[in-house]
């Protein structure tokens, strides 16, 4: 364990100091705004800007890192965050505070992306879990300790702001003094909201409410506490209990989530949390701080668990290759919830009183509870052994995406230089990448199949047109390239067949035969161990392929059908039905033509 973590000590020290500063800022700003007499809805608006910045940072951080590098982005993030908090000490203008809060959110998203990339690069399949767990402990410990720094000086003085700025600047030193080289950038694109909602409605809704509930709780809790004269050390102790609960409750909840139906676990968690949330204002009215701390820890802890549970719930429904994209989309949804949390709860508090914060939280929980019950009624539960594992997430909001063991895959052989260059070009100009491969196919035809395989993995590449472009300049490579596409882009096989039926029917027979030969080799030996989402996608791809062959190339349909049945015997009856339906349609068309009166 020590040998694994020792090379990463400078990263963890910088990360700890950075989050120590952000932990202090998180409690300082709402307390100071309350002391300045700002209205509750103004406080909520300013605090919600952090999530706006985090959302923008999540969208653009990797693009910035690829331009200037990891160390410069981390340095810029820490420096800009220091400037932002020091600027807040110079004025009490709520608009400037909102802008600075948004800048802080942007910077923390960039900083998390930098640390995530470095830790992921330094980890292996055996050490990834340990490094992830250590990073979570570092973040939560820093935020926990940061609460107590509020006691160094009165919140009305500039001293606390200066301390926070010093911490953010200090976070630079361990990292920039190291000899560490920035890792390779892995660009990821988030899955669309519509696609996520179609695949996992409960995952999307619980993710949104996870952001809404947690951000409303931790941002507006100091404002609520001030209404009951909870200040000084008592306030920091109270807020620290919330952070501690957010960390500790993930262990038992994660265990329950992995051992029982996740939706059932979520149902009972919400029921327990509704009770805990209702007790908090009752404890405040009776000045029972210990009761408040306990119930706040429980409530905040369960709110924190909603995000990792929503990720696991969504991962149950998506293909393994789409997990990183799904997590990127979920992060955006979580950030949207975090924007609305402080904003909407502060408006409720302004009009109905500070205790209405918990009425808002309970109403939101009840709505989520109703949706959980609805999903339990309309969809069957996934077998426990097929559920994705629960992986802890920090309460800071920005996840360590690349470090999550569920989204990382090890490639046995790295891409050659030409393939890497082609992919890089394709990300900005697919047409230019195809032209490059065409030229290489003319001079070095032995490299064509590898390059085509690499380009087929790029989202913006049209596989059918790629095949035609390359085989037009190198027609002798048709079968080799078809084999490469069948092995590396099986999801596009039906698309390729449909396009060739329309544009190049003369080559269809040979290509179909090659696809039929390659199809059963796709994860044949491990099909029984496929995740349900991957098996469903494979099943759909096979169905589409058989259907295309049966309709457009019936003489090859039996070869493809045999290949599919050999791979998935359970599909035998469905394949026979497809062939039977296609044969009936052909007979009906033939009889219809024969019955026409001769003119």
Automatic annotation (TrEMBL):
What PROSITE patterns does its record include?
MFS
Q: Which GO terms describe its cellular component?
A: plasma membrane
- Cross-referenced InterPro entries: MFS (IPR011701), MFS_dom (IPR020846), MFS_trans_sf (IPR036259), MFS_YcaD-like (IPR047200)
Regarding the membrane, this protein is recorded as: Multi-pass membrane protein
Q: Which GO terms describe its molecular function?
A: transmembrane transporter activity
Q: What residues form the membrane-spanning segments?
A: 7-31, 43-61, 73-92, 98-119, 131-150, 156-176, 196-215, 235-253, 265-284, 290-311, 323-344, 356-374
The entry's keywords: Cell membrane, Membrane, Transmembrane, Transmembrane helix, Transport
Give start and end of each Major facilitator superfamily (MFS) profile domain: 7-380
Sorted alphabetically, which Gene3D superfamilies does this protein's record hold?
A: MFS general substrate transporter like domains (1.20.1250.20)
What is a single Pfam family found in this protein's UniProt entry? MFS_1
Report the PANTHER family cross-referenced here: TRANSPORTER MFS SUPERFAMILY
Which organism is the protein's source?
A: Neptunomonas qingdaonensis
Q: Does the keyword Cell membrane apply?
A: yes
Instruction: Please state what the protein is called.
Output: Predicted arabinose efflux permease, MFS family
Localization per record: Cell membrane
């Amino acid at each position: 364990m020590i040998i694994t973590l020792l090379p990463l000590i400078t990263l963890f020290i910088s990360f700890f100091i950075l989050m120590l500063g952000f932990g202090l800022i998180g409690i300082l700003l709402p307390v100071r705004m309350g002391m300045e007499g700002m209205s509750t809805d103004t406080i909520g608006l300013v605090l919600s800007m952090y999530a706006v910045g985090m959302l923008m940072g999540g969208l653009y951080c990797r693009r910035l890192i690829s331009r200037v590098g990891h160390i410069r982005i981390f340095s810029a993030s820490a420096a800009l965050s220091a400037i932002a908090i020091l600027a807040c000490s110079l004025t009490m203008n709520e608009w400037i505070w909102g802008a600075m809060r948004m800048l802080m959110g942007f910077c923390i998203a960039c900083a998390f992306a930098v640390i995530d990339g470095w830790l992921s690069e330094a980890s292996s399949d055996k050490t990834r879990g340990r490094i992830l767990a250590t990073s979570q402990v570092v973040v939560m410990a820093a935020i926990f300790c940061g609460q107590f720094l509020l006691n160094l000086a009165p919140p009305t003085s500039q001293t606390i702001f200066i301390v926070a700025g010093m911490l953010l600047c200090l976070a630079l030193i361990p990292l920039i003094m190291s000899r560490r080289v920035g890792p390779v950038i892995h660009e990821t694109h988030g899955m669309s909201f519509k696609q996520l909602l179609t695949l996992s409605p409960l995952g999307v809704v619980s993710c949104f409410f996870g952001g809404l509930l947690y951000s409303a709780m931790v941002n507006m809790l100091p404002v609520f506490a001030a209404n009951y004269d909870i200040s000084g050390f008592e306030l920091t102790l109270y807020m620290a209990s919330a952070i501690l609960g957010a960390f500790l409750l993930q262990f038992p909840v994660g265990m329950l989530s992995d051992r029982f139906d996740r939706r059932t676990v979520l149902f009972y968690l919400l029921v327990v949390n509704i009770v805990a949330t209702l007790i908090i204002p009752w404890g405040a009215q009776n000045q029972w701080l210990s009761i408040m701390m306990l119930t706040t820890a429980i409530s905040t802890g369960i709110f924190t668990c909603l995000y990792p549970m929503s990720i696991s719930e969504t991962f149950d429904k998506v293909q393994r290759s789409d997990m990183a994209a799904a997590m990127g989309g979920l992060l955006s949804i979580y950030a949207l919830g975090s924007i609305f949390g402080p904003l909407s709860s502060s408006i409720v508090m302004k009009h109905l009183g500070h205790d209405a914060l918990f009425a808002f939280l309970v109403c939101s929980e009840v709505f989520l509870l109703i949706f959980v019950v609805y999903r339990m009624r309309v969809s069957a539960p996934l077998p426990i052994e097929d559920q994705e594992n629960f992986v802890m997430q920090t309460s800071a909001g920005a996840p360590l995406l690349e470090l999550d063991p569920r989204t990382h895959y090890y490639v046995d052989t790295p891409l050659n230089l030409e393939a890497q260059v082609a992919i890089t070009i394709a990300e900005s100009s697919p047409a230019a990448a195809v032209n490059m491969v065409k030229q290489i196919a003319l001079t070095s035809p032995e490299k064509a199949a590898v390059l085509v395989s690499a380009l087929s993995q790029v989202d913006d590449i049209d596989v059918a047109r790629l095949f035609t472009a390359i085989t037009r300049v190198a027609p002798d490579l048709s079968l080799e390239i078809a084999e490469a596409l069948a092995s590396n882009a099986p999801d596009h096989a039906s698309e390729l067949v449909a396009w060739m039926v329309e544009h190049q029917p003369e080559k269809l027979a040979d290509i179909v035969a090659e696809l039929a030969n390659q199809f059963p080799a796709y994860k044949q030996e491990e099909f029984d161990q496929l995740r349900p989402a991957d098996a469903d996608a494979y099943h759909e791809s096979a169905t589409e392929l058989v259907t295309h062959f049966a309709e457009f190339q019936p003489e090859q349909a039996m070869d493809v059908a045999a290949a599919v049945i050999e791979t998935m015997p359970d599909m035998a009856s469905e394949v026979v039905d497809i062939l039977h339906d296609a044969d009936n349609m052909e007979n009906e068309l033939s009889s219809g033509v024969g019955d026409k009166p001769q003119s």
